[in-house]
Amino acid sequence: MGTTQRLWRWRSNPLRRREDVVEAWMVLVVWTLALVGGALAGLVTAGAAEDQYTEQRTHRHAVRAVLLADAPHGVTADWSPDGRVQGPVRWTAPDGASRTGHTLVAGGLRAGARVTVWQDDRGRLVLSPPTGRAEGHVEAALFGAAAALAVAVPVFGAGAATRAWLDRRRLAHWDQEWDLVGPQWGPRTG
């Protein structure tokens, strides 16, 4: 297919209708918005996710803690993805003070067991370790791709709906013109 055939809507042509010109501009706008908008949304989202994961790695630290009570075995926290249970622990904060709190620990541990917990720069417990560098890159890329799709899909959907509306208009115009010209060609069959 030659360039002139692909760009027929842009050329001056006695068969070109207003809907054809609108469709040509609309297709250009849809592709531009989908590509540029999707790329920008994807890059911004991936960058924000990378920044968040980097901040986690910077401000979360593993410390050793002592379990203060037996952790129940076989009873997991409802929201724990890896089957851990809530247990009271004591640890030393960055300022040297001894602190106590509750965090997720493996079930079945006895009081006095040593566990690894995660704390922030202020010595507060956080429930999960920071996202690793490789995992963070993958998750940021997936978030970026999802954001790009979240922009592109509605744009393409709006473009498809507009093209369908333009097609209905073209068919209605053709029906009107055929009603004017058809009787001049003789009786209809069928």
Automatic annotation (TrEMBL):
It comes from the Bacteria. InterPro entries: MT1774/Rv1733c-like. Keywords: Membrane, Transmembrane, Transmembrane helix. The keyword Membrane applies. The keyword Transmembrane applies. This is Membrane protein. The chain crosses the membrane at residues 21-44, 140-161.
